[in-house]
From TrEMBL:
Catalysed reactions, as listed in the record: 1-(5-phospho-beta-D-ribosyl)-ATP + H2O = 1-(5-phospho-beta-D-ribosyl)-5'-AMP + diphosphate + H(+)
Main location: cytoplasm
Similarity comment text for this entry: Belongs to the PRA-PH family.
Record keywords: Amino-acid biosynthesis, ATP-binding, Cytoplasm, Histidine biosynthesis, Hydrolase, Nucleotide-binding
Pathway: Amino-acid biosynthesis; L-histidine biosynthesis; L-histidine from 5-phospho-alpha-D-ribose 1-diphosphate: step 2/9
Gene3D superfamilies for the chain: MazG-like (1.10.287.1080)
Protein name: Phosphoribosyl-ATP pyrophosphatase
Length: 108
């Protein structure tokens, strides 16, 4: 997974400065931030619907669409993959994240 995400991020980053014929990524960068954000929202909604329908294979496909569009957003916003990985790694080491108010809700 990590290698695939890293490889895809690098292709997307390279696409940013290109005008490659037939490239969907170039099309997204040309359209700009509003279009990229709209696609992130659409793909997130499609994941939700596939998951709600209990369709694991379709949910996996939609997750890939969402991850791709999130990576496009990261490149557009100049957010390095390393920066996100570092935050994830910090959070991984932290245990017991259930907030106090959630515990209160569960106990009531
Ligand atoms: N991983 C992806 C990827 N995932 C999803 N998509 C595109 O995301 C779109 C999502 O489908 P939709 O039906 O929601 O959108 P659409 O109707 O095609 O597009 P809109 O008119 O809504 O913008 C499809 O066009 C998919 O092809 C992707 N497009 C490209 N990549 C990878 O990005 C790299 C560069 O691709 P190009 O820039 O196309 O060369 C390659 O490694 C590709 O495999």
């Amino acid at each position: 997974m990590n290698g695939a995400v890293q490889g895809l991020y690098e292709i997307i980053r390279a696409r940013r400065g290109e005008r490659t014929q037939g490239s969907y990524t170039c099309y997204l960068f040309e359209q700009g931030l509003d279009k990229i954000l709209k696609k992130v929202g659409e793909e997130a909604s499609e994941c939700i619907i596939a998951a709600k329908n209990g369709d694991g294979a379709q949910t996996a496909q939609e997750l890939c669409d969402l991850i791709y569009h999130l990576l496009v957003l990261m490149v557009e916003q100049d957010i390095p993959l390393d920066a996100v990985e570092e935050i994830l790694e910090q959070r991984r080491r932290k245990q017991g994240n259930l907030k106090e108010f959630h515990q209160v809700d569960r106990n009531s």
